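Researcher: We're teaching a course module on how sequence relates to structure. For the next exercise, students receive a sequence and then see the predicted structure as tokens, so they can try to spot secondary structure elements on their own. Here is the exercise chain.
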Amino acid sequence: MPTTKLVALMCTLTFCSSMVAMAEERQEYGPRLEGFDYPYKTETFRFTGQGQPLEMVFMDIAADKPNGETVVLLHGKNFCGATWETTIKVLNDAGYRVIAPDQIGFCKSSKPDRYQFSFHQLAENTRALLKQQGIEKATVIGHSMGGMLATRFALMYPESTGRMVLVNPIGLEDWKAQGVPYQSIDAAFEAEKRTTFDSIKSYQQKFYYSGQWKPEYDRWVGMSAGMYQGSGGDIVAWNQALTSDMVFTQPVVHEFDRIKVPTILMIGMTDKTAPGANRAPDDIARKLGDYTQLGKTAAAAIPNAKLVEFEDLGHSPQIQDPDRFHDALLESLRSS
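Model: And here is the predicted structure for the students to work with:
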């Protein structure tokens, strides 16, 4: 085949491959993430809460060679249980049983029209799930918003928390107290309805990854964006607005000194995440989300806390550099 024709064919194949990848990333999913496959079998915890039937979808993965310990993985606001895919495998291989739930209002779990979202309520739901699964004590690992939930869980149920790991948790500062203006739920709902694949990617690239991007991140952006773009986009946006209000109005940072369980802080220091900073005056916004200091301040405030810093990683170190993150995680779990 002539060289020019071969080059043309290769370009065509590359273009087609790119288009297929883009089509997969831009898929529409149902309001409970119907159509998106999880890496492990899912189960459903059915219960009645706040006067209505609710379903909490979760993965419960046993280790082939169990070490007798259980780890609970708590996802962030812009993430799902599935995002822990690599972490689940690493922990399983090390002997841990892993529970990875989708919280009510998120991903594959119920998205109620009315619900009083609070970290207390989500912690109570999580504890009920663990009891159903026969788990009395576990290591709780929370990422992003999941770090706020893990903190509340540890404060409410110290006897059930063997240790806590916070991975770039939000809530290491009180944005409202720092001067970020409040946003009504109605205003948040209108903003959420404008969410697209491109808006999620732009936000994450700027704040999570310091302007950098890898193609493998697109899968998780597509997972979130697909729910907004699907037929149930409004109920997805409504639940996201309600949980945004929870994040902003229910700080945990003021209670760090009350934490009684061994705590490991794993901080990607290039992270700039600060919910609501876009609403704040420039002089306030510039001071928010400084994880080079937030991790150190939190470690000093939490009794017996250990700080693990990744100087060149951002909001999701377990995704950005999984090998380095998981080596550090396993070492921290062993040493604690």
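Model: If you want an answer key for the exercise: The longest helix spans residues 3-25. The CA atoms of residues 124 and 231 lie 30 Å apart.
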